[in-house]
Amino acid sequence: MSVPSSAIESVLIENRVFPPSDAMVKCARISGMAAYNALCAQAGGDYEGFWATLARENLAWSKPFTKTLDESNAPFYKWFEDGELNASANCLDRHMGTPVENKTAIIFEADDGAVAKVTYKELLARVGQFANALKARGVKKGDRVILYMPMTVEGVIAMQACARLGAIHSVVFGGFSAKALQERIVNIGAVAVITANVQMRGGRAMPLKAVVDEALALGGCEAVKTVLVYQRTKDACNMVAGRDLTFEQALAGQSTTCAPVPVSAEHPLFVLYTSGSTGQPKGVVHCTGGYLLWAKLTMDWTFDLKPEDVFWCTADIGWITGHTYVAYGPLAAGGTQIMFEGVPTYPDAGRFWQMIERHKCSVFYTAPTAVRSLIKASEADPKVHPKRFDLSSLRILGSVGEPINPEAWVWYYKNVGGERCPIVDTWWQTETGGHMINPLPGVTALVPGSCTLPLPGLMISIVDEMGHEMPNGSGGMLVIKRPWPSMVRTIWNDPERFKKSYFPEELGGKTYLAGDGAVRSTGEATNGADRGYFRITGRIDDVLNVSGHRMGTMEIESALAAKSDLVAEAAVVGRPDDLTGEAICAFVVLKGGRPTGDEAVRIANELRNWIAKEIGPIAKPKDIRFGDNLPKTRSGKIMRRLLRSIAKGEPITQDVSTLENPQILKQLAEKL
Ligand code: WTA
């Protein structure tokens, strides 16, 4: 935050420790540090036995597994492979005949405030019927289905219906462009696309089906035989005869009963594309057994979900957080969850607090970016301040997606949590499937800005480039030393890239490299209270984190380079931003020379719109700077570190004596 007083506070609060309340320790599933240590010791003593027991206790298997972990083809690890189960059966059928059957599974609040509730029994029937509709279109086990859906119950139903048939879903976030969508459809070889006519956000209808049509017309999508369209509104959309059906048409006459197809624990449940260091997004593959175990287990461990809890994860189903903590985890755990279609600032920035009050939310999980923007909004307009709402139902708060700065942490703790709710700051990634490092509500003393300790059983440490363990207080690369059940299995169609990206030879080929930098606390400032706690310092690769969304700098550079009539060369870096965590800054050399004044502004806007078309609006650079050329080393490598300093507005301390044209530093420092 740019408020001066909080900058002072930040120095004061960094080392404050917030131990768990006695009440929380008493009621939590993992109760107290001794219980946590005992679980860690169990895993340390018999790693496979530890996970095998949890997998038997937490999942319903149609065929029990006999082997827990197969490391014979490392790093292509396999978990519970000869066991069979169905993810949808574990989320729905499993609760039939129990008190959960008639419990509300989803409280859906639409963009316009309309509320609809669906019970587990109803959800099962709707998923069954949808699965039958897919089946009728020939979708079967192993087929790939793309979802391009709004945040609606229908989105979850479609995901669950795919899982029910053993079809592999791949959800593409509704903010991605037609081009990005087409690339994913082609890469995965989808046979069907599930979408809606529009999505409603902030009172506006945004087309989805039209984007699907555009994507399919780009070519290479001949395998797509079916497009199912949810009529979110009455607005008509283009329908292609023989290929496109509305949900209503597809569901007509279909039975609500559909037997779940048992699949191997290692059968892919979904593929989710995410950004990496190179231009092409990678299709992260997650498999049924290990992933689902994690979704269920972390609901219990991290959120300590109780039968009476009302859980709310604000993430979109287009991201991993929306997969694990909307579409699968809460259902596998038999919980009641809130699902929200809209945006936190519509009709005003009090929406989240109003919804917590209205639905008596008890566990609330959101991103630091949202918290920071709502701080700002409530400073500008006291009517949307959380203090104006009854938030007494809350008992646990969560944070995900990016580091939470201590100022935002303390505001969230005080104003939303009423100083009684622990904040679980969860570090994890698309690739890890679920939570990895985070406090447990009944165990961990909290320190603002620290994600604290690994979940029981996980072998996580910080190493240097040679793989040597770093002592507390020294930063290094975050690694996971042993395989865990919910880990990424491969990159779709690219096993070599999987090995290279995550299991580098330099570290022995079996250690998972997360791509984040981290440091463990010495505990000096807290009398040892946080000794060994992890603090994430940010990505160590060319991946940016903008508002909790992962973005590859190379992806944006490739998009710029593709505008070949204008752009000669471009380099993209991140710079810190008060609101979005990081902001995208692009340095561009144009073919027609360096523009100035209004022309520069016009071209910058043209480039922004171009990127929105190539990737999506979330990838639009905040800053675009033009230069006659880019600073390069003698060997021709772009000096990115220098560009980062320029983007931040820092004085240049690097050696620039080798630059051919030092004049460009001044040019590139110039804001439009
Ligand atoms: C970052 C989102 C600090 C990190 C679940 C990671 C975090 C990337 C945190 C993964 C956190 C996520 N503290 N950094 N609590 N959570 N990150 O794949 O850089 O969208 O590598 O998964 O977000 O982003 P992804």
Short description:
This protein has 672 residues and is an alpha/beta fold. Helices cover 32% and strands 21% of the residues.
Mean pLDDT: 95
Q: What is the third-level CATH name, the topology of the largest domain?
A: Rossmann fold
- CATH structural class of the largest domain: Alpha Beta
Q: Strand pairing plus helix content: what structural class?
A: alpha/beta
- The total domain count is 2
Low-confidence stretches: 1-12
Radius of gyration: 25 Å
Shape: globular
Helix content: 25-40%
Within the largest sheet, what's the order of strands?
5-4-17-16-18-19-20
CATH H level, superfamily name of the largest domain: ANL, N-terminal domain
CATH architecture of the largest domain: 3-Layer(aba) Sandwich
Question: What report would you give on this structure?
Answer:
- With 672 residues, the protein is an alpha/beta fold.
- It has 20 helices and 29 strands.
- A 7-stranded mixed sheet has the order 5-4-17-16-18-19-20, with helices on both faces.
- β25 and β26 (549-552) form a beta hairpin.
- α3 crosses α4, α6 packs across α7 and α14 (368-380) crosses α15.
- It is globular.
- The model is unreliable at 1-12 (pLDDT under 50).
- The chain binds 5'-O-[(S)-ethoxy(hydroxy)phosphoryl]adenosine.
- 5'-O-[(S)-ethoxy(hydroxy)phosphoryl]adenosine is lined by residues 274, 319-321, 400-403, 425-430, 451, 514-516, 536, 539, 545, 550.
Which key phrases capture this entry?
672 residues, alpha/beta, Rossmann fold, GMP Synthetase, Chain A, domain 3, 2 domains, 7-stranded mixed sheet, 5-stranded parallel sheet, 29 strands, 21% strand, binds 5'-O-[(S)-ethoxy(hydroxy)phosphoryl]adenosine, metal-binding, nucleotide-binding, EC 6.2.1.1, AMP binding
